Give the backbone structure.
Amino acid sequence: MKNTLLFLFFVVTATFTKSSDAQNFDWAYTTAKPSLTQAISIRKDQANNFYLASQRDSSVNHLSSEIEKRDDAQTLLWNKVFPGDVIISDLELSSTDHAVIIGYYMDSLEIDGTTIHSGIFSYSGFICEFDQAGTLLWLTDVNPVQDDFRPYDLYITQNGNMYITSEMNGAVNDFTSFHQLDAQGNIIKSEFNNNTEARTNTNIIADDDGNVYLSGTCGNFAVFDSIQANLNFSYQNFVMKYDSTFKALWFHSRNYITFDHNNSLQLNGNYVYWAFDDFTDNSDTVKIIKIDLNGNIDREIVGPIAQSFFPSIQFNMDPQGNSVMAFEIYSRLILFRYDPSFNITSQDTILTGAASFRNSSDIKCYDSTMYIAGLYYSDTMQIGAFTLINANQTANWPTDMFVCKWSQSAITSVSDLEKSESLVTIYPNPATDKISFNFDLKESEDYRVRIFDNLGKNLIETKATSKSIDVSSLSNGLYYIELIGGKQMVRNRFIKQ
């Protein structure tokens, strides 16, 4: 979820104005791996490296999964391939930036010389942990029912407690559950929704007091602990709260007309935020509901697109309460960014050719960045200024995975601006038709130029071929120029007259 999805610029009045632009991507790349590559989870560590979990289909490995760690230049630091019939469901980072992975496997699973066996003829769950160097610390089989058991979602609290959701579709068991695990992945306690009406547990989050918040889909007669859903529609999105003993405290639901993992859940301060596709009034609407910890609905934020044809939804929020909603519709990936009061700060159609975004993708927000990973099937994909080429165009199912990073660009003080201005010289200033610039960028052989107005709106963005740019099309006024080379960036301002 996380990041300030805004663009801040210092203006001459010493105030700040917020804006955002779809072109504001640091980088984007395609993985060029075998067809049916699917992004599962992407996370950033404290050193600005990122971890990516994915699964793919190939002629060699029926279903194989992989995790990889890359630095901010997308250089591969290490990776782990899980061969065989293995599906990674989720990846999270611990407070020490260890990668914790859950998923399910058939028969046996071997990682770096450590092997576990399921002991059954269907899927069994697993959880494992890698340190920052990629060393396997432990690998644990997770299966409390000795039947088909598939972990789906993982959450790690600030104090290190781990929780997972699961689905069971075996010969004996056909229901959902969630569990608290110890530091080695062993189950401490469980809650089973032992009825077929509790269809999916999509998201799980928890606080440091052990309260658990769960979202998913269910049918008319679903029972959760002591709560009877008593619904009036075939399928429902739901959100609910359990206390630390796994006693159900409250429950909310909204209509939905198909069966899908399409809920997103966030916990921030004294509120839970639940995003989903709502069909309550017989028309599809993307919606966010803000709920206090006692289960009272504070407000409902209706998304800007009604009748949106069952969009697949991702919703994420940074610690400051800035958030982003992403959904795929009509082969386009749409982003709506909100401030903490849920005013829309930006709305962008940033991608084309996105496929099943919710089920084969992830979006994660941090204080100043946003990472997106997903699946696409078109020959090319445009992400900001980056054009991605699908390496699997000739395959029977020509899909590939994309990964991108969006960053806010901010000047947070007068001194920051003055420091940046000392690194680049603009002339003539004031300018009429053209400006030239000298700058101190060590990696300046290949650089980009951006020009913004005093509201932060991106007016010009280009790959520079010389140290000058035509500004004759700009109206008279104050502007900011940004020069980006490699990992460096310098800024200054100029007047057009």
Remarks:
- The domain at 414-496 is CATH 2.60.40.1930 (Immunoglobulin-like).
